[in-house]
Each structure stands twice: as structure tokens, then as C-alpha cells.
Design goal:
CATH topology: Four Helix Bundle (Hemerythrin (Met), subunit A)
CATH architecture: Up-down Bundle
Radius of gyration: 16 Å
Largest sheet: 3 strands, mixed
Strand order of the largest sheet: 1-2-3
Number of helices: 6
Number of domains: 1
Order of helices and strands: HHEHHHEEH
Distance between the termini: 19 Å
CATH class: Mainly Alpha
Shape: globular
Number of strands: 3
Length: 174
């Protein structure tokens, strides 16, 4: 599996996180009910760790499931922020986890492994999005095409009006 889109999605997210972290002014406050930059990064770290665990289980021949509910838990998100030491630590954690996932999810897996069905539960804002098996390939593709870009936009939305945003991510063909 070509993990270039996944690497690009992590790069864009981390560029956005660095832009937000370097933005002038006091705390960038999210709209009511939304996460701040640290909480977004902690959530991404938890989602990535869950994905690494699923990929590792499939690669070892074990049965696995994929459930993002723990990555939505406020206490767990806050603990992840504290354990990582804040924004800079979270960005480094997500970078390293993304690198590991791209390595494991690419050349380390064959087509049969990527096609392995994984019972999946995905929620967003309290709404059930998925409750059915998805292939490991679909989980990785969804992370690259939907999850990470969505959180990149969420980070950039924290910037004050008129603040510069990072360059658009480069595609594999650019």
C-alpha cells in the first residue's frame, strides 16, 4: 500500500499545528463545545495509537477490533496532553506515531492483510458513523482522506482572522 497520502496528511496536520502554536496572541480559544489545539492533537495521537495497534495485530495474525470511543473521552484526552507535556510534546508524539503507522501500514503488509475485515465502531460528536467491519486498508485510507484533513481544518479554524495558514499539502504527483 502506498502510504504517501497518509504521510502527506500527517505532514499537513503537523504544519497546521505548528502554525497554530506559533500564532501571535494569547490562547486561541475554540468555539464553545470544540477542542483546543492540544485536545485535537491528543485525540489524533489516540486515534493513531489505536490504528497502530490494529495494524500490528493484523500483521501478527491476531484478531482485532477498531473503536475510536476512547479517543473521544475527555479524561483520556486531558491525560494524554499531560503525559506528552503539552503542545510541542504532542506534535512530536503524533509525528513519531504517524511515521510508525506509515512504515507498518505500507511495505510491511501484504494485500491479504490490508483486506482483512476489522470490526469497527466510529463515533463523531456523539453520532455513530460506522458499526460494521471495515478492511484495514479502508481504516488507513479513511485516516488519510477524512480524519486527519478534518482535524487539520479544525486546527486552522483556531487561527485569528487574517493569520497565515501553512501551504497546501503536496500531492504524490507534485
Amino acid at each position: 500500500m502506498d502510504t504517501t497520502p497518509l504521510r502527506d496528511a500527517y505532514r499537513a496536520l503537523l504544519d497546521a499545528a505548528a502554525t497554530v502554536a506559533g500564532s501571535a496572541g494569547p490562547d486561541l480559544l475554540p468555539p464553545a463545545g470544540e477542542w483546543d489545539a492540544d485536545q485535537i492533537l491528543a485525540h489524533v495521537s489516540l486515534v493513531t495509537a489505536t490504528t497502530v495497534a490494529a495494524v500490528s495485530a493484523v500483521a501478527s495474525g491476531a484478531r482485532t477490533t477498531y473503536d475510536n470511543r476512547l479517543a473521544l473521552d475527555t479524561w483520556t484526552i486531558d491525560r494524554t496532553v499531560a503525559l506528552a507535556g503539552g503542545n510541542a510534546g504532542l506534535r512530536e508524539r503524533v509525528r513519531l506515531q504517524g511515521d510508525a503507522l506509515c512504515t507498518l501500514g505500507g511495505p510491511a503488509l501484504g494485500e491479504p492483510e490490508l483486506d482483512t475485515p476489522v470490526p469497527t465502531v466510529l463515533l463523531s460528536h456523539g453520532t455513530l458513523l460506522v458499526d460494521q467491519p471495515l478492511s484495514l486498508r479502508d481504516l488507513l485510507t479513511g485516516l488519510a482522506e477524512t480524519e486527519l484533513p478534518g482535524h487539520t481544518k479544525q486546527l486552522l479554524a483556531l487561527l485569528p482572522d487574517g493569520a497565515s495558514s501553512p501551504a497546501a499539502p503536496r500531492s504524490a504527483g507534485a
